[in-house]
Design brief:
This protein is of the alpha+beta class and about 675 residues long. The strands form nine sheets. Strands 14-13-10-11-12-15-22-20 form an eight-stranded antiparallel beta sheet, sandwiched between helices. A hairpin with a 2-residue loop joins strand 26 and strand 27. It is globular and about 80 Å long.
Length: about 675
């Protein structure tokens, strides 16, 4: 067994690997960029080595620096995590050449499965069913268009070296094929240095079901059951669960055999995932499963499979890499219960999911000693979400004896969990798992688009009246200036008490773009809060400076509150929602913020990929003007109105800051 391993990654997966390695008594080495010098994975590891500047291309993706760090610290093995170099053939080969064990499959297996077109050919020869399509060397746009026309629309364009939804588009009509193909190729080139694509038939009601497989160097193979990863947004998974709903024991055995056959076909060693696209338009059967791709690494969603199987997959990886046999045979593995995982991303669902950056100033969690509850995260209080890396903050995982119990528990855990300081998608996730369709397991990869209005209703960003009332009372009674609350001692309460008079205040709160006026009247024993003519009778029952309970109109209500140290605002966690309120002073500047209708503003720091117009050009409302990339997301910025391009303030490949004015419009002069 290894005495020291280096983790060639960052964030939650680095923390995840470190914890298992240390549990096994193995010393761990972290690597970090200049942006990550104070990151959680650096603090958790036994040793850490600086490997370069913040951009991944100058640090986490530089093979020479990773190898040098391993040699410097005496690490005999490297765990690549997922992403970055985890499926890089050159990195696997370099490790072997340097006498360092790569905790992953052989370079031949990575190479065989690394290109989707070749992988499909191998699987087809092994008797594994694949989706109809074209995956050849001819990348001429006109030829690819003709192949798409033959297959029949809709079709899916996919980068052959891709992953994570990069370089992928659904095409519904031959008229837009060439434009979408160009965008896919550009995105694939930027992400994978390879712009080759394949085309396959698009299945109208697809489910994404994948199987966890393991192989060892002694010729043993097992699968650890299936996961459903159908709920996705922009081809990026957001909710995963295991086992997959509507898959019975007989079908599980059949598809498990197919997955093991696929792993055996390339003499696979280590952890891998066989991904299937499944036609859910009829009752599931073996014939409905089509091989999509194989990921030759640990998946982001592996915790749900760990929780139902009772196994530690990182420990399995390390033991297999050290030459040991698989810890369990197939007949020793059993499914126990149901597990669900939610990916919490730093993004703003109320504004088209634009990625967010900033400091995490507080974290609320449920009881971490609860065996049904797990958080895999790469951040702690005081850490920053950076523009340089993936915006995932954490994964929230829970287990239940059944799917129904797991969902109920997850809703309860969400009501107690929050990462404060950066906008995130937690409420969006809550809406997904609370929806009738998800509760009924009516799943497919179009789930988010089909239920968009339910998941993101018009009042998504608006405050609930009860939460606004709690916040108004919190400010009015002075609880924001007191760390304790004792209802038995009126002298201990900072509530503006005065002899012969009750508290009377008008509090203005800002929530997003809304200003809420609340009248607060009463004393520590009982208050009335009036908003828009509606009155809440309220009593503070308990409050310890963070968590508390109100009695509101006769019913009790739990909440958590955290003050933002950077401004006069609070975040309130209530009923599974995190709402941010700022005290609005009456003399505050009420001018509107942000861009006017004649400007295109950068929504966050990023890089301009392409400028689609020239100075002096006439443009129409919603016409694409600029394509920029930030936090692995390509965004198209469109014209806010008709006009003429007055100025272009930046060029292609320029890096721009948050709020930069990229382009200015003027009205077209009348003839």
């Amino acid at each position: 067994m290894f005495d020291t391993i280096l983790i060639a990654n960052r964030g939650e997966i680095a923390c995840r690997v470190i914890k298992t390695a240390q549990k096994m008594g193995i010393k761990t080495v972290a690597v970090y960029s200049e942006a990550d010098q104070d990151a959680l994975h650096v603090r958790l590891a036994d040793d850490a080595v600086l490997i370069g500047a913040a951009p991944a291309a100058q640090s986490y993706l530089v093979i020479d620096k990773i190898i040098a760090a391993a040699k410097q610290t005496g690490a005999k093995a490297i765990h690549p995590g997922y992403g970055f170099l985890s499926e890089n053939v050159a990195f696997s080969k370099r490790c072997a050449d340097e006498g360092i064990v790569f905790i992953g499959p052989s370079e031949s297996a990575i190479e065989a499965m690394g290109l989707k077109d070749r992988a499909k050919d191998i699987m087809r020869e092994a008797g594994v069913p694949v989706v109809p399509g074209y995956q050849g060397d001819n990348q001429d746009p006109a030829f690819l268009k003709s192949e798409a026309d033959k297959i029949g629309y809709p079709v899916l364009i996919k980068a052959v070296a891709g992953g994570g939804g990069k370089g992928m588009r659904r095409i519904d009509d031959t008229k837009t094929f060439l434009e979408d193909l160009e965008s896919c190729k550009r995105e694939a080139k930027a992400a994978f240095s390879n712009d080759a694509v394949l085309i396959e038939k698009y299945i109208e009601k697809p489910r994404h079901i994948e199987l966890q497989v393991f192989g060892d160097s002694h010729g043993n193979y097992v699968h650890l059951f299936e996961r459903d990863c159908s709920v996705q947004r922009r081809h990026q998974k957001v909710v995963e669960e295991a086992p997959a709903p509507h898959v019975d024991a007989e079908l599980r055995a059949q598809i498990g055999e197919i997955a093991v056959k696929a792993a055996r076909a390339i003499e696979y060693c280590g952890a891998g995932t066989i991904e299937f696209i499944v036609d859910a338009s009829a009752k599931l059967s073996e014939k409905a499963f089509y091989f999509m791709e194989m990921n030759t690494r640990l998946q982001v969603e592996h915790p749900v499979s760990e929780m139902i199987s009772g196994q530690d997959f990182v420990e399995w990886q390390i033991r297999i890499a050290a030459g040991e046999k698989l810890p369990k045979a197939q007949d020793e593995l059993r499914i126990n219960g149901h597990a669900i995982e939610l990916r919490i991303y730093a993004e703003d669902p109320a504004h088209d999911f634009v990625p967010q950056i900033g400091e995490i100033y507080d974290i609320f969690t449920a009881d971490l000693d609860d065996p049904h509850y797990r958080i895999d995260s790469g951040v702690d209080v005081g850490d920053r979400v950076s523009v340089y890396y993936d915006p995932m903050i954490a994964k929230l995982i829970c287990w239940g004896e059944s799917r129904e119990i797991a969902l109920n528990r997850m809703n309860g855990y969400l009501a107690q969990t929050a990462f404060l300081g950066v906008n995130n998608n937690q409420e969006f996730l809550r809406n997904i798992i609370s929806s009738n369709a998800f509760q009924d397991a009516d799943l497919n990869t179009h789930f988010v688009e089909q239920h968009h209005d339910t998941l993101l209703p018009e009042n998504y960003a608006k405050a609930e009246r009860m939460e606004a009332a709690i916040t108004a009372l919190y400010f009015a009674a002075g609880f924001d200036r007191d760390d304790s609350f004792d209802t038995s001692d009126p002298w201990a309460i900072c509530d503006n008490w005065r002899m012969n008079h009750d508290l009377k205040k008008l509090i203005r709160l800002r929530h997003h773009d809304d200003v809420i006026e609340a009248g607060v009247e009463g004393s520590y024993d009982c208050y009335q809060v009036s908003i828009d003519g509606e009155i809440c009778d309220m009593r503070m029952l308990e409050f310890d400076g963070e968590t508390g309970m109100f009695e509101i109109n006769g019913s009790s209500h739990h909440f958590k509150i955290s003050k933002n140290p950077d401004d006069d605002s609070i975040n309130l966690l209530s009923n599974g929602r995190v709402l941010s309120f700022q005290r609005e002073r009456f003399d505050a500047d009420s001018a509107s913020h942000g861009a006017n209708e004649g400007q295109i503003i950068s929504p966050m720091p990023g890089t301009i990929i392409k400028i689609l117009v020239k100075k002096g050009a006439k443009v129409a409302k919603d016409q694409p003007l600029i394509i920029m990339e930030a936090m692995k997301l390509e965004m198209t910025l469109r014209a806010p109105r008709d006009g003429v391009i007055e100025s272009l303030n930046h060029g292609e490949n320029d890096q721009v800051i948050d709020g930069a004015v990229l382009l200015e419009l003027r009205e077209e002069e009348a003839a």
